[in-house]
Structures
1.
Amino acid sequence: MENLIGLLVAAPLLGAAVLLCGGRRLDRSGPWVGTLLAAVSFALAVALFADMLGRSGEERTLTTTVFSWVPVGGFRADVGFQLDQLSMTFVLLITGVGTLIHLYSVGYMEHDERRRRFFGYLNLFLAAMLLLVVAGNYLLLYVGWEGVGLASYLLIGFWQHKPSAATAAKKAFLVNRVGDMGLSIAIMLMFTTFGTFAFGPVLEGAGQAGEGKLTAVGLMLLLAACGKSAQVPLQSWLGDAMEGPTPVSALIHAATMVTAGVYLITRSGALFDAAPTAQTAVVTVGAVTLLFGAIVGCAKDDIKKALAGSTMSQIGYMILAAGLGPVGYVFAIMHLVTHGFFKAGLFLGAGSVMHGMNDEVDMRRYGGLRKYMPVTFVTFGLGYLAIIGFPGLSGFFSKDKIIEAAFAKGGTEGWILGGAALLGAGITAFYMTRVMLMTFFGERRWQPDADGNAPHPHESPKTMTVPMVILAFGSVFAGGLFAVNDTFLKWLEPVTGHAHGNPPVSALTVTAATMVVLVLGVALAWARYGRKPVPVTAPRGSWLTRAARRDLLQDDFNHIVLVRGGEHLTRSLVYVDHTLVDGVVNGTAASVGGLSGRMRRLQNGYARSYAVSMFGGAAVLIAATLLMRAV
Amino acid sequence: MNPVNYLYLAALLFTIGATGVLLRRNAIVVFMCVELMLNACNLAFVTFSRLHGNLDGQIIAFFTMVVAAAEVVIGLAIIVTIFRSRHSASVDDANLLKL
Amino acid sequence: MNTAATATSTGEAVQFWILGIVAVAGALATVLMKKSVHSALSLAGTMIVLAVFYLANGAYFLGIVQIVVYTGAIMMLFLFVVMLVGVTAADSLKETLKGQRWLAGLCALGFGILLIAGIGNASLKEFTGLGQANSGGNVEGLAALVFTKYVFAFEITGALLITAAVGAMVLTHRERTERAVTQRELAERRVRSGKQVPPLPAPGVYARHNAVDVPGLLPDGTPSELTVNPTLRARGQIRDVSGTALRELAALEQRAQEWREHGRSEDAKGAGK
C-alpha cells in the first residue's frame, strides 16, 4: 500500500505535466483529463483509507522512503512519505473537494480559452497540496508548501489581463514569502536542534530540547502558518486573492491551501506543547483573526470578499483551537473538514450566482435570486446554516466544540478566548445572514451594465450544480457523522492525542450561549437587511464599517509602515551610498586621477628631461655612497 | 703637483659634458658631449693607472676607446637616418615617447 | 726603485695648469658654441690636450691612439656628419623646455661638487708611478695584458666592431624600391604641372658676385630666391645683395656719368688748348 502514497501525488502531477506541456490539441479534452486524474487521486485516497481502516489504531501510520534526496556527508534528506490519520483526513478532503471543484470548473470555465492551462494549474495545486500533507519530513513538506504557493500565485493571477488580478497574485506571493521565510527558518532551527527533518525524531525529541529554542521554532512556524492561512498580521492577501476564478477561491482560498497553517501547527503539536509561549501566541493570533475576519466580512459588499473574510475568521477558529493544545487539535481538524465542505459549497454557490449574473460580484445588485436559482439557493442555504452553526448541521458540532475548548483553557485567558469565540459566532451569524438576505431575498436590484446587457439570472449547468449538491450533503451531515460516538475524536486521537477540557461552565450552557448569540446575530441582520430594502449604493456607514471595508486598514497600515518605511530606508541607504560609499570611491578615483595628471607632466616625452632625472639620480647615488662612507 | 689634479680635471670635464647633454638640442652636439664625458673617464682611468702603478687602467681606457668608436659609428648612422626621415637633428623633435 | 712619490716634476705641473685651462675652455666651447662645426673643432682641441695628458701620465700608446683614432678619425666623422646634416634650427641655444636649464644647472653643480668632494676625500696623497710597469715598454706591457688577461674582452670587442660596421651600413644604406625616374619623365611631369616649365634661373653670378648664395636679380632689380640652391635657402644663408647691388649700380652710373661729363670737358679743354 505504501507505493500508492507516491501515486497519490504523482497522478495530479502527471496531469499538470500533460496539460501544461501538451499544447493546443488538449484544449478540448484538457478539463476532463484534469478532472479524471483528480478523480484517480481520490480513488487512490479512498483505497488507502479503506486499507487504513482495516488496521488497528496504532498500526495505521504508513511510512515509506522513496529515495534519498540529498545525501551529503552526515546530512541526509529523504523523499519519504508518512500517511497517518491526520494526513489521511487531509488527503480525503483535498482529493474529494478537489475532484468536485474540478468537475465544477468544467462548467464554470467552459467559455475560457485558456481552460487547459487552468486545469493544469489546478492539478499542480493538488499535487503540491498532497505532497504537503503526506510528506514524511519538514523539508519535503516545505517543497509542497512552496508548490501550493506557486499554484496559488498562478491561479489568482490566472486572468492576468486584469491588472487587479496580476497585482493580487503578486501581493499573495509576496505576503506568502514572509511566511515561507518563517518556515525555512523554523526548519533550519530544527536541523540545528535535532539534526534531522523527519517528523518522528523531531516530535519525539521535542521534550528534550530547550524551551527557548522550541519557542523560536514555534513562533517561526506560527509565522509560516499566518502567511499561508491568512492570519493577522499576514492576512492582507486573502481578500485580493478573490480576483482569481471562483473555483480557485473555493478550493485553494477556502477549503484546502489556507488550512495548511492549521495542518502545520497540528502536525507540530508536540513542539508547541513544549513551548507555552508559542502556544499563547498561536491562540492570540487565532482569536484576533477570528474577530478581524468576521468584522471585515460584515462590511464587504463583494460576495466573494465577504466570504473571504469569513474564511479568515473560520481559520482563526481553527488556529485558536490548535493553539489550545491537545484539548483543541482534534476540534481544529474537525472544524477544518466541515469548513472545507460548507465553505467550498458557499464559494461554489457564489460562483454559480456570478455565473448567472454576468460575473457581477456586488451583492447590492443581487436580490431575490432564490426564484431564479433554486438549486444554488438550497445548497448555498444549507452551507449558510452549517457555517452559522445551526443545530444539527456540521458547523454546529465543530464550532461548538472549539468554543467549549476555548472556555476550558481556564482562568481569565479562558474567559477572554471563549468570549472572543462566542462573539465571533454571533458576528458570523450576522454577516452570513447578511450575505444570504442580500443575495437571495428582497427586491431584485440588478440593472443593465455599461454595455446595456441586463443579466438574465439562470440556474447553472449540471457540472456545476452536482458538486454543489454533494458539498451541501457534506455540509449537512459531516459534522453529525463526526460527532456521533466521538468518531472523529477516536480516529484522530492516536496521532494528535487528546485531552478532555473542563469548561468552567457546563457544555450545555456554552451551547445555549452560542444559540443565543446566533439568534441575536441573525435577528440583527434581519432587522438591517431583511426588513428594510437594501440600497443599491452603499451608505457611508459608521467609522467601523468604513474601516472594515478597507480591510480594517490593513493595507493602509502595511503601506505606511512597510512601504513608506521601506522607501525611507531605501532612500536613506541610497543617500548613504551616494554620498559616503560613492564619495569614498569617487574621491579615491579623483585623487588618483589628479595625482596621475600631475605625474603625467613628468612624462613629457623629451629625452632631455629624462636625462636630467637620470643625472639627478646619479648625483643622489654619489651622495648616498659618500654618506655611507662617511658613516 | 700631485697627479690627483688630473682627476679633478676629469670630474670637471665630465660634468661639463653631462651639462652639454642636458642643454643642447642638436643631436650631433649632444653626441659630442657624450664623447667628452667618455674622454673624461679615460683621463681618470689613465691617471688611476699611474697612481696605482699598473696598466689595467690603460687597458680599460683602451677598451673604452674601441667601444666609443663603435658607438660613434652607430650613433651617427642613427642620427643620419633620423635626419633623413624627419629632416631634423633635434632631440626634442624625437618625442614619440609622448603619447 | 722608489715605489711611492708625492709630487711630479715642475714641468709637468706647468704643462698641466696651462693645458688644463685649455682643455676646460675647449669643453665649455663645445657646449656653448652655437654652430656644431665650432663645437666639433673645440672638442678636437680638448681631445688633443687630453692626448698630451695621457702621454704625460705614461700612457704613450693611448696618447697616440687618442690623436690618431679620436681626433683623427672620430672627430672627422663628426665633421662629416655635421656637413651632411647641415645647420638646423636645433642649433639655437634658446631653451624650449621649461625649467630644463635650471634643473640641468642644479644637477650639474651638485654632481660636480659631490664628485670633487669624493675625490678630495679619497686618500691619494701618494702615487706609485708607472716606472716599473712601463719598464718593458708601454706598448709591450699593454700587449701582454690584452693578449693574456683581457684576451676574451679583446675578442668580444672585435665582434662589437664588426657588428657596428655592419649596423652602420644597414642603417645608412637605402635600398631603392622603385625604378629611378628618367629625365624624360621628369620633364613630362614638369610640363604637366605647369609650375616651372623651363629650368630654374641661375643664381646671380655677375662680374663682382660669383657666389652661389647670391640671388639673381629680376629685371626690376628685386632678388629672386628661386635662383638660390634650396639647401642654402633652408639654412637662411642667402646673401641679399639687392640693395647694395642697386646702390652700387647707381653709383657706377653716377661715376660713369661724371666721368663722361668730366672727360668731355677735359677733352674740350684739351681741344681748346
2.
Amino acid sequence: MIELKNINKTFSIGKTQVEALKDVNIQVSKGEIFGVIGFSGAGKSTLLRMINLLEKPTSGEVKIDEKNLLTLNEKELRNVRKKIGIIFQQFNLLSSRNVFDNVAEILRMNHVPKNEIQRKVEELLLLVGLEDKANQYPANLSGGQKQRVGIARALAMDPEILLCDEATSALDPQTTDSILELLLDINKKLGLTIVLITHEMDVIKKTCDRVAVMENGEVIEQGTVLDVFSNPLEATTKIFLRNLYDDTITEDMVVRLGEAGHSYILRLAFRGDSALDPVLNVISSRFSVITNIVHGSITYLKGTPLGILLVHISGEDANLKQAISYLKEEVYHVDVRLELKKHYEEVLAQ
Amino acid sequence: MMERFDELLPLFTTSLYETILMVGISLVIATIIGVPLGVLLVITRAGHLAPNKWLFQILNTIVNIIRSLPFIILMLAIIPFTELIVGTSIGIRGAIVPLIVYIAPFIGRLVETALLEVDYGIIEAYRGMGASRIQIVSRIILREARSGILLCMTIALIGLIGATAMAGVIGAGGLGDLALRYGYQQWDLPVMFGTVIILIVLVQIIQSLGNYGAKKLKKTV
C-alpha cells in the first residue's frame, strides 16, 4: 500500500547540509499498523511527512497503491492527500472554531452538502466519544479530548491511511492508553492503515504489527514487532526495549552463578502461549544439566504475550551443547548470552 | 468656554466629521492593500505555503523603506505622486493618498505579525488533508488570526488618526487642522483643549472596542 524506496533527504541549514534521511526503505501493507521508533532527531518525523509529501525527498520514490506521488501535479497530489489523515502531538486544532466545525471544516472545503456534513460529523464524534462536546471550543478540552477531535477530523474524508505524528507524546499514560485503544478500534472497524511514529516502545508494543527503528536518519532495524522485540539486534533497539523488560546480566549475577563451574546464561524468548516449563524439564532430565531461572518477564504485544527468560544452565560441556541445540529447535528464539566461566574469571581478575 | 459653545460646536462637529471621513476612506483602502500584503509577507517566506525569496525581499524592503519615514515627511515627499493620482495635493483628497501610502505597509507589517502567530502545525494539518493554498489562507490562517488582526487594525486605526491630524499641515481639514489653525496660530486654548479631549475620547473608544472584540474572537475561555 505504502512504499518508500531509497529515500534520501538533505536539508541545507545555512551552508551546512544535514542528512535527515539516508537510503530509507519501508513498505506498509494495507490494514497494518506500522510503527517507527527513534530518539528525537532520528528523522522519524521527516519520514512520516514523506508519505503525504509534506516533505519532498531529495531522491527516492514515494508510492501509494503503486502510484508514484512525485510524478503528480499539485491537484492530483491534493486528491491523494485527501485520503491520508494525519494527527499530531500538538493536536493542531483550530482554536477559533468549536469541535463540530473543527471536524466539519475540511468537509466544507470539499463542498460536501450541509446535511451530509451534519450526519458525518455526528457519526465521527460518536466514534471518538465526543458526541456531547460538539459546541465546545478546543481551549476547554483536555489533551485526550483534543486528540479525539484530531482523530475525528483526520477521519472526516474517509481516508485509507492515518499518519500519527507522536500522537500520544503529550498525553498522560492513562489517556495515552485510551487513545491507543481508539486507534486499534478504528484500525479494526475501518480497515485503516496506520503509520505512527513515537519514542515510546510502549506505544509500539500496544498497537503495532511491524516496527522500524531509526537512528541518525537511517532505519537500522525493522521487522514484525514479535521478531524485533524477541531478538533486538541493534544497541538502540535494546535501549528502547529496556523500558519493557530488563534482561541485562549484572556483575552480581555473574559472581553468584560463576561458582557453579562451567555454565552458560541463556536468553530465551518465547511466545507466552507456548508453555516453557516442559522444555526446561526435558533438558534437565534428558541432558542432565541443571537449569535455574535468573530473570523472567512477560510483555504483551498487542495481546500476544512475549516471554523473556534468562536461564542459567550448568553441567558437562557436551551436555550443555546438546541442551542448547535442543532449545534452539523448540523455543522461539535462543541465544547464548554469556559463557559464564570465562567471564567469571575476568570479573574476578579485575 | 461655555458662552462660545454655539460658536465652537459646528467647528468641532465638522472637523470630527472630516477626520472620520479621511480615516474611514484611507483605512478601507489601506486594509484592502495591507492585508494581502501581510499575507504575502508570511506565505512567501522560506518553508511556508508559497516560498518566493525575491518577492519576499522586495515587499519586505518596500515596507521597511516606507515605515522608516515619519508621516509628515512622507506626505510632503510624495506630493507629485499624490497629484498624479487625485489631481491635487491639498485638502481631504490630497491627504487620503499619503495616508494610504503611510498606513498600508503598517497594516501589512502588523497583519504579518498576527498571521505568524498561527502555528505552522495547523497549516501543515490542512495541507496534509489536501486543502489548497487559497483555502488555507482564507479559511484557516486569516480566520485563526482574526483576533490578532482586529487588534492590529485597532493599532493601525489609532496611528491613522494621529497621521490625519498631521495632514492639517496641508490644509486637509479635520481635528488636526482645527488645532493647528485655532490652537496654534491663534492660541485659542479652548479649541486646543477641546481637540485634545475629543482625540482622547475617540482613541479610548476605539481601543476598548478593539480589545473587547479581540477577546470575544479569541475563544479561549
